[in-house]
Amino acid sequence: MALVLHSGAGNKNAFKALIAAEYCGVKVDLVKDFQMGVSNKTPQFLKMNPLGKVPVLETPDGAIFESNAIARHVTKLKADNPLYGSSLIEYSRIEQWMDFAATEIDAGLARWLYPRLGFGIPFNAAMEEFAINYFKRSLGALNTHLANNTYLVGQSVTLADIVMTCNLYMGFARIMTKAFTSEFPHVERYFWTMVNQPNFKKVIGEVKQAEAVPAVQSQKKAPAKEQAKPKEAKPKEVKKEAPPKAAEAEEEEAPKPKPKNPLDLLPPSKMILDEWKRLYSNTKTNFREVAIKGFWDMYDPEGYSLWFCEYKYNEENTVSFVTMNKVGGFLQRMDLARKYAFGKMLVIGENPPFKVKGLWLFRGQEIPQFVIDECYDMELYEWTKVDISDEVQKERVNAMIEDQEPFEGEPLLDAKCFK
């Protein structure tokens, strides 16, 4: 008996086993004329998977469900398979990234996409914002890893790449527009490299990136279900009750107002952050006289606070481009604070280990709690509030805004701005 995969032709979870089969030279037949909602409800299918979910792999030894388990089974049918690496540590890292693809990428994407499509949890604007920020955090971690790696593990395609790419596929095809993915250039490069590999392309075909975020779908019940209620004795009463029920349903489905960020509730500040950012960006000459002076003229110590930060593990910064990518990833993950912050990050030194130091301007008197909660990089730095009454600290602020070189006696390897 040949291996038979029960699933629709466009199911990204079915792609995993089919792509693995192409790499392994294993024959897997996709069942023909599979109809979701029909084929998966038959007694024969429910014997293979009582939940009626797809995909399911039918083998001579019995059925297997769960897409990653199916992909593992297909891969292990070939001895010494490079899809599982060449050592125990590579095998473990492949498993690691497969778990990451399931718990971070697939789950994170589902929290964002499915409510918009009307699946599962009803759409809620505040929850969507949380879901997007959570998903960006996961993509940021993946982006950082891929900054220095063509593949997830080793120097060739592994099962981890197959699973990760298939989980990213739904996002790129349905909701992750170019404007969104441009924040994660290494993830972009990785995804398009993978889907254009011959074995991927043979299964998935041409992939087109989503051009727009899908509109929120109505989650109203079908009219047939409403009509299934027992008829009222008096027709007039039915007519009177129907409109309020419809109105109530619409009210329940309407997204709740987006909760205000606590920083928006602070007393108004005389400092307009966007005006400072424009001044910084537009000042090309006489930077000290124009931009630095303008900053202190605008600065509101009651509405904003300044913070120095220094990376806790500078001894690890032994490779220049890795260190710079580390800082770049941090700034990407700080995007959630763009409305409330301005930052400068310096990579310092001519020879390794390189030092990473920064200056941040935040709305309010403390580092915003939502930034600490959502951006895991924050705990990798020591944070010190600037005392602007101290002229030495104030001059250090000036030097960091200006990218002064040398900085504290050392040359700058790189300087990045968050604005």
From TrEMBL:
Q: Does the keyword Translocase apply?
A: no
Is the Acetylation keyword given for this protein? no
Gene3D superfamilies in UniProt = 1.20.1050.10, Glutaredoxin, Translation elongation factor EF1B, gamma chain, conserved domain
| Ranges of residues in domain GST C-terminal | 87-224
The GST N-terminal domain covers 1-82
Q: Could you tell me which SMART domains the record lists for this protein? A: EF1G (SM01183)
Per UniProt, the keywords (alphabetical) are: Elongation factor, Protein biosynthesis
Under Gene Ontology molecular function, one entry of this record is:
translation elongation factor activity
- Region Disordered: start-end pairs: 215-266
What the entry lists under InterPro entries is as follows: EF-1-gamma_plant, EF1B_G_C, EF1B_G_C_sf, Glutathione-S-Trfase_C-like, Glutathione-S-Trfase_C_sf, Glutathione_S-Trfase, Glutathione_S-Trfase_N, GST_C
Q: Fetch the Pfam families from UniProt.
A: EF1G, GST_C, GST_N
Q: Cite the record's Basic and acidic residues compositional bias ranges.
A: 223-243
Domain EF-1-gamma C-terminal, chain residue ranges per copy? 259-419
Quaternary structure annotation from Swiss-Prot or TrEMBL:
EF-1 is composed of four subunits: alpha, beta, delta, and gamma.
Function summary = Probably plays a role in anchoring the complex to other cellular components.
Protein name in UniProt:
Elongation factor 1-gamma 1
Lineage here is:
Eukaryota, Viridiplantae, Streptophyta, Embryophyta, Tracheophyta
